[in-house]
Amino acid sequence: MGSYTDVALIHEEVAVAPTFGSSLPVPNVQEIVKSDPLHVPERYLIKNQEDMPKDADHTCNLSSEIPTIDFSLLSRGHKEELTKLDLACKEWGFFQMVNHGVATEVLQGMKDAAAKFFELPVEEKNKVAMTSDDIQGYGHAYVVSEEQILDWSDLLFLIVYPSQYRKLKFWPTTPEEYKEAIEAYSIEVKRVGEELIRYISLIMGMEKDALLALHQELVQGVLVNYYPPCCMPDKVLGKSPHSDTSTITILMQEDNVTGLQIRKEGEWVPVKPIPNALVVNVGDVVEIWSNGKYKSIEHRAVTTESRARLSYATFLFPHDDVEVEPFDHMVESPGSLRMYKKVRYGDYLRQSLKRKMEGKAHTDAAKTAS
Ligand code: OGA
Ligand code: NI
């Protein structure tokens, strides 16, 4: 228990761990619901008729067409599965991944620990509250003005890899298994995520490890979203439409409540959970590298009247210093347009965090012509 060493370690941690932007403080939605479940404050109400979520679950026929990719076939080198992955990334930017090999206990362990955390009294959760200079910890993200319409959700965000980026002051100590659960889950998601990035490298016509190497250091963050029940689900959004600033995102959903929707051909398509499947979406980095050939799809989360929903998003993204721009070989013919400017990833990420999440606003800002 050498406290001297501990102090040195803490200093070292602070010295190398970057901050990722900030968000204005807003009320805790879970507490709003607890104190008055039948009322939604004005700041959360969507004004624009077109943006209001509709009950798409029964009407949308595209839902059943969301691609499913079998990870075990990819790892056994099946060419057809690689072709399916290529199509899924081009046409959808989005797929359900089955047979990924992550043990059910590991998935469940993460879910149980997170559920327990969100059940704690707010004073306890606030022990790991975000501070004004970072978006790690318990709080909210992408709140940039007092006027914007707010999302009906609370969150807990932690950077897990590289391990020297960890800020342990934001890691819950209750429930005591949280650390172990997020660690066990993240090791597995890292393994699967790195493999997926290798396959994306292949479908882009590159060496298997080329994309991973371009990250300099693969950064991994885990975001647990908590969407409390909402008495006005048709006038409120759990998470506003956005695309992810990551290379790829791997999302675990709950089995029995639908909330995630993706925008396809102008329609909002609900992503019905497949038990034990992980949902994968292409992020902005792959969209830019591929010059728009692979789509970082716009998505959002709706709320439910009767119950809360949790989701667990792992973002994999490059080191701050990586310069991201379309690969030459992805700009189709010599005369074709380069759709995106060169951007330092750290700047791209922080600019995005300063903008309210709004559809494809992040990648639009990176485009060469508006
Ligand atoms: C996200 C996200 C969707 C969901 O966290 O970026 O899109 O279903 N979440 O919670
Ligand atoms: Ni997202």
Automatic annotation (TrEMBL):
Asked if the Swiss-Prot or TrEMBL record annotates the protein with the keyword Transport, the reply is no
GO-annotated molecular function: L-ascorbic acid binding; metal ion binding; oxidoreductase activity
Keyword Iron included in the entry's annotation: yes
Q: Which PROSITE patterns match?
A: FE2OG_OXY
Coiled-coil regions in this chain?
Answer: none
Q: Which domain of life is it from?
A: Eukaryota
Q: Which Pfam families match?
A: 2OG-FeII_Oxy (PF03171), DIOX_N (PF14226)
The UniProt entry, under InterPro entries, shows: DIOX_N, IPNS-like_FE2OG_OXY, IPNS-like_sf, Oxoglu/Fe-dep_dioxygenase_dom, Plant_2OG-oxidoreductases
| Family per similarity comment | Belongs to the iron/ascorbate-dependent oxidoreductase family.
What name does UniProt use for this protein? Fe2OG dioxygenase domain-containing protein
